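Technical note accompanying the year-one report. For the benefit of new consortium partners, we illustrate the data format agreed upon in the data management plan: each record pairs a sequence with a structure-token string. No post-processing was applied to the example shown here.
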Amino acid sequence: MKRITTTAGMRRWTDAARTSGLSVAFVPTMGYLHEGHLSLLRRARREADLVAVSIFVNPLQFGPKEDLKRYPNDLPRDTRLVRKEGCDVLFVPSPTDMYPPGYRTRVTVEGADEVLCGRFRPGHFSGVATVVLKLVNLVRPDVLLLGQKDAQQAVVIKRMLEDLNTGVKVLVCPTVREKDGLAMSSRNNYLSPDERGRAVAISQSLFLARDLARRGERRASAIRARIMKVLTEAGVIGVDYVEILDGTDLTPLLRLEGDVLIAVAARVGRTRLIDNVKLKV
């Protein structure tokens, strides 16, 4: 495995891969890798000749009161995990290389700040779209792999890459969960034992919602109320949203129909967690 720390070095690797006629699958991450990330790497190996992974905690997607400074990191551990999965290149750029003095360009996907996490994290998805486009321009992958847990991020990135004619195929892979159902996340590391016990109510409420839909419930308001009841009874009171939307374009639904996304964001202690389920109705 080759480890690259500069944008110039990444371009050289990409040029060599393209000259050799090899396809590239790419997994962008912010590090502190868990089984969810590793599942993407394994899928990437099946999708292309070469697998590239990036680790970059992107400052553009954090607000002034968010957890940029305390975001967990363990690069030596991550490097070992990536190498074990057989990745071909690990790209670990610095913030000053990605955003040098004088940098002033951002990418905006219209409507991203109007729904779900966009309403609570102004500018977040502009930061996400900007860094992903920069990484895609450096790695030039054939396939980009993302996780379903970050459903809004996946929709925004897919829309951006399609709108800008990048030709990159986007694969959104299933959420990987702990044995009790909690969605794997680097931020789970913040949770105390008591908070960890309460946090599982988020996934439990979503599984209940999915079961209600499968049994024929179509009223979004009724499903939303049942989710809130589960969260409240478990002591999860810092709920940012419980939303039921079209899974393709994130428009709100009054009745469940077609591709449906049921999404929750809530704070357990100081930690903000997101999760969702997707279903076909």
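Partners are asked to follow this layout when depositing records. The mean pLDDT is 97.
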